[in-house]
Every structure is written in C-alpha cells, then in structure tokens.
C-alpha cells in the first residue's frame, strides 16, 4: 500500500495538461495502485494522477459502486445540465456549485489496454468530468458559480 500526499491547488502540476499514456507498463500499474490507495485513504470519490504529482492522463473513481480505473479518458458525448455541489481533495474545505452535463459517455483504456466505454449519469457523470478536467489543468473552482467554506 502506498498512500501519497494529495497535492493542493497552489501546485503548478494541477494547472498542466497531463501527458497521454503511450505504453501501459508496470509503472502505470503502480500508479493506478497508488492512486487507488490514496483515493480510499482520503475518502475521495475520484482522483487524477496529477493530484499525486504525476502528470499523466490517468484517473480513478469510486462513487460507491466499485473501482473504475481509466487511462487516457475522453468525454465523447454529453447531455443535459445541472448545477450541483462539488469538492476536491486538492482544495480542502471548499465546496462549490458547478454546472455540468448530467449524462456523459466516456472512453478510455483499462489497465489491460482494452478500450472501455462508460455511459454515466448524475453523480458518476459529474465525477468523470471533474477528474478529466484535472487532466486538462482545470479545477472545479474555475467552473463554480458559487463557492463556500465546507
Ligand atoms: Co478534484
């Protein structure tokens, strides 16, 4: 088990465009394992690799229905819109109301390099978008219409 310290908003890595994964090797397996351990330790519902200091396009999510690991994820379709409260392990103590599509189709690779697709709604859809935003240097505070202390 390897739990990393989650980097916080003033760290430049959170503002970078994370690099595409070109080869899924042992370093990626280790990254996924460390992200999973860190996400559960911090009781988060999602984590993006830059949050543990690795600028690669890798995310983990668990909104209560099991672990999702996704490499090079992209949103290929969106539908609807809703504004809901959101927080981030990298911005502790802050909650914001963020408008986002309510349904998304997300594609990426699993740890075996197989292409996978998720059709997500509501909370899971929001989690995917939040984590994929991290890979593009975007934080929820950039999109929030209202911020408050948690
Ligand atoms: Co976040």
Give me the secondary-structure topology:
Layout: H1 26-41, E1 46-48, E2 58-61, E3 68-79, E4 82-86, E5 94-100, E6 103-109, E7 115-121, H2 122-135, H3 140-143, E8 146-149
Antiparallel strand pairs: 1-2, 2-3, 3-6, 4-5, 5-8, 6-7
The structure holds cobalt (II) ion.
Cobalt (II) ion (CO) is lined by residues 88-90, 130, 134.
Detailed description of the structure:
Helices cover 23% and strands 33% of the residues. With 150 residues, the protein is α+β, with helices and mostly antiparallel strands. The protein has one domain: Alpha-Beta Complex (Peptide Deformylase). Strands 1-2-3-6-7 form a five-stranded antiparallel beta sheet. β2 (58-61) and β3 (68-79) form a beta hairpin. The radius of gyration is 14 Å and the shape is globular. The protein starts with 25 loop residues before the first helix and ends with a strand. The model has no long low-confidence stretch (mean pLDDT 97). It binds cobalt (II) ion. Cobalt (II) ion (CO) binds at residues 88-90, 130, 134.
Summarize the structure.
The chain has helices at 26-41, 122-135, 140-143, and strands spanning 46-48, 58-61, 68-79, 82-86, 94-100, 103-109, 115-121, 146-149.
- H and E string: HEEEEEEEHHE
Q: Please, how many helices?
A: 3
- Small ligands present: cobalt (II) ion
Unreliable segments of 5+ consecutive residues: none
Strand content: 25-35%
Q: Write down the CATH class.
A: Alpha Beta
What's the total number of strands? 8
Helix content: 10-25%
The CATH topology annotation reads as: Peptide Deformylase
Query: Whole-Å distance between the termini?
Result: 29 Å
Can you tell me the number of structural domains? 1
Oligomer: single chain
Q: Judging by the overall fold, what is the CATH architecture? A: Alpha-Beta Complex
Q: What's the CATH superfamily, by name?
A: Peptide deformylase
Which strand order do you get reading across the main beta sheet? Answer: 1-2-3-6-7
